[in-house]
Request: fold
Amino acid sequence: MCADLSVGEYGPAGRDRQKALTLAERREVVTHLVTVNGLPVQRACGAVGLSRATYYRPLVEWARRDAPVIAALTTLVAAKSRWSFWKCCDRLRLDGHPWNQKRLWHVYCQLRLNLPRRTKKRLPVRLRQPLVVLPQPNAVWAVDFMSDTLSGGRRFRTLNILDEGVREALAIEVDTSTMPMDTLWESISTMPATRSS
Reply:
């Protein structure tokens, strides 16, 4: 058996690392090596990288073992959904719970509380009021920007000045770059001189 030591395989952009086996998967591999291949437990545990004490220790469901931690964390996060992990950890410490931050962080991640939680944005309630536009010229004007692209891919912007009362376009200024404010004010200030009611 010969290993390929080319730079492309083991370099900085090198080989893909496989995901590490979980504890339950390592136990299954050791059991398979012992029952099917006939290896001693000590050698099978050494090959997999699992200690014999861990292999013989009964597997306990983490949800059953950490039930009080789960209950305390979920009630705290339900009450204070904007709190981060460290604020929850400090609050539980002040409440007199004996758990350290490593155990709390493990349960916090198992419950997927470390992922960003989507909270509903509360917008103030506004009363809907219809816009009243008088059907006469020069009562209400509107200013609007629009943008589009030419067939060659060049972008242009238009400044539209509209008379809302008679639904008429008073002026359209076109420019290929960002329109400066003096152009906007110049267009609006010259409009009353050219527009008669």
Q: What stands out?
A: Residues 62-110 form one domain. The beta strands are 141-149, 155-163, 168-175. The chain has nine helices and three strands.
